[in-house]
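Q: Okay, next protein. This is AKA14 protein from Hypocryptadius cinnamomeus. I've checked the sequence twice, so it should be correct. Can you predict the 3D structure?
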Amino acid sequence: SKHVIQNIPWTTAKNFTVEKGQQQIEELISTWDIHESWLHHSEFLEEEELKDSKRYHYRACWGLPTRRKPVPRATASVYFVIVISKLKPDTAPVEVFYRLESSRLIRRPEQCEFRQKWLQDIIENKILCAERL
């Protein structure tokens, strides 16, 4: 059986606000299959004005705190962009993309299932690098 990719109904351009964008990113993250031991916080970074769109940049920073180490040794960030087209009607939904901090690959939530392993790989690589220094 093919796994169903979870996505959420995104707001329309005319109903978009920075706060609504952050709420919707949180809503998307809540559909991801990530163990509850992973904690994150999300934040709005910046607004970018382009010729045919406005882009809103956000970041979700992930870590694995434990009782013995409440401050994680390393974190992994996922960067989100919410795009509002100036060419489409304002009743069209916003477009959403994300990428991992260690990657140039840009993903769309409706086309790609998020994997917890990506976060683990980033953190493991950072810890390995730190141990080498």
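A: Here is a summary of the prediction. Residues 13-131 form one domain. The CA atoms of residues 98 and 104 lie 10 Å apart.
Q: Noted. On to the next one.
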